[in-house]
Design goal:
heterodimer, A: mainly alpha, Formate dehydrogenase/DMSO reductase fold, 14 helices, B: rod-shaped
Chain lengths: 388, 51
């Protein structure tokens, strides 16, 4: 285990691709803030929310749920065997939420007015206000939860020890805030029953978004752990490597049960609105593809993988679940939204919108690489064996 | 199916929902039993799983 960078050349293929994407992102940034939304996006009066909300915000928030699921498993339910997964999960969640706020600036515009809805003109009857307040508070909580790793790296012992004592309180606060805004993001779409296809519209949208965030978070921890295992294996200590399989098997069980619960709520929502007839249409085939292929199938794969201790199968199920959550959020916000409009008036993201979303993900990966290569994320700092 | 009053609609959809709920309870029991069956074997016969 070493924190030294053994590769002296910065012109690796990965770095060159990263540099190109970041350069395109800077071009989009300049265009967006000098020429306006119309210069870079296909948004219009029918489709005021596009890819930046559907992918960067809805998917970003859902996939960042690993932070509250992992920390609550470890600190609230007392499952200390998942301790080594907490810091990577908190880091992913912190970066995920920070990028949600970052991307939201591009969609909303005028970043210097970001303080208005929280401090100057709070619209306390609006769901958007509730989402904004929760995300603002949760980003702060995640930053504090993540800070001990940074302070250990910087050698600021006193500050690190003081914040470490807040761990349980921060975890409880984080779970409350996550429950509130994960569900509120779904509740936003309850306001558009005439625009969203009946197979995706439901009075239970808030519950559906919250319940689906649990397997999304658990799967993201497995998925991210799988991706990180090879390039940063030299940064992982013996405890992290020894607990790795146990974390995957335990989280697989949780993900299987929570995906099954999500599948059940989906069917209840369907039965309650009596939408069975829509299943015989093309939209029904697309709905079945999403629900059977990316909810029921990974739930069974997780169950089989957990029973047979088949780590490979569990990793495939995690990838499928992550894809399924992205598909669901895009279906609700883009594909099944305005489904009754003629094709000429439907929304499809512009090239620059897609490039911006790739830019946001690349920024996240770049910052993640910087942090895990330096700070004690995959290992316990030798001077702080009580690390959270 | 034709509904004359809202009560008919609710009667129909709620009946199906309650049947589904019963099936889900059985389904969860089955899923949990399937996932944990090997664990129980380990608890029943710990001597077979000693390293």
């Amino acid at each position: 285990m070493t924190t030294e960078n053994t590769n002296n050349s910065i012109w690796t293929p990965a770095n060159i691709i990263t540099a190109v994407i970041l350069a395109v992102g800077l071009v989009v940034t300049v265009l967006r803030f000098t020429k306006g939304l119309g210069a870079v996006s296909n948004l219009d009066q029918n489709n005021p929310w596009g890819l930046w909300i559907g992918f960067d915000l809805l998917c970003g928030v859902a996939l960042a749920a690993g932070g509250y699921t992992t920390s609550s498993a470890c600190y609230i339910f007392g499952l200390k065997k998942y301790h080594s997964a907490v810091r990577p999960a908190i880091l992913t969640a912190f970066l995920g939420y920070a990028l949600v706020v970052f991307a939201l600036h591009y969609d909303v515009g005028r970043p210097y007015r970001l303080v208005y809805p929280i401090f100057l003109q709070p619209g306390t009857t609006s769901l958007l206000y509730e989402v904004g307040l929760c995300v603002f508070l949760y980003v702060t909580v995640l930053a504090i939860e993540f800070s001990p790793a940074m302070f250990e790296w910087l050698g600021m012992k006193n500050l690190r020890n003081k914040i470490h004592k807040l761990t349980l309180a921060l975890t409880v606060f984080g779970v409350i805030l996550s429950t509130l805004h994960q569900s509120s993001l779904g509740a936003l779409y309850i306001a558009v029953p005439s625009k969203l296809h009946p197979l995706w519209y439901s009075p239970y949208l808030a519950i559906l978004f919250f319940v689906s965030s649990i397997p999304a978070g658990l799967s993201m921890v497995i998925f991210e752990g799988t991706l990180a295992h090879k390039p940063w294996r030299h940064m992982m200590d013996k405890t992290h490597l020894d607990e790795h399989d146990g974390v995957i098997l335990g989280f697989a069980r949780g993900a299987s049960i929570s995906l099954a619960a999500y599948f059940c709520v989906k069917l209840v929502a369907m039965a309650y609105d009596n939408n069975w007839a829509h299943l015989a249409t093309g939209w029904g085939a697309w709905w079945l593809f999403e629900v059977l292929g990316f909810v029921a199938a990974p739930s069974l794969m997780y169950a089989i993988g957990s029973r047979e201790k088949n780590i490979g199968l569990i990793k495939w199920a995690a990838g499928l679940t992550v894809l399924g959550i992205i598909l669901n959020r895009l279906n609700v916000s883009l594909v099944a939204f305005n489904w009754q409009l003629p094709a000429s008036e439907r929304y499809f993201p512009s090239f620059l919108e897609i490039m911006f979303s790739i830019f946001v993900v690349t920024v996240g990966v770049t910052v993640y690489r910087f942090i895990v290569s330096r700070m004690p994320i995959f290992f316990e700092h030798p001077e702080y064996k009580d690390a959270n | 199916m034709e509904y004359h009053v809202f009560h008919d609609f609710m009667m129909h959809t709620k009946s199906i929902t309650y049947i589904l709920m019963g099936l889900f309870v059985l389904g969860f029991w089955g899923l949990w039993a399937f996932m944990t069956s090997r664990d129980e074997e380990i608890h029943k016969f710990p001597e077979h799983h000693k390293e």
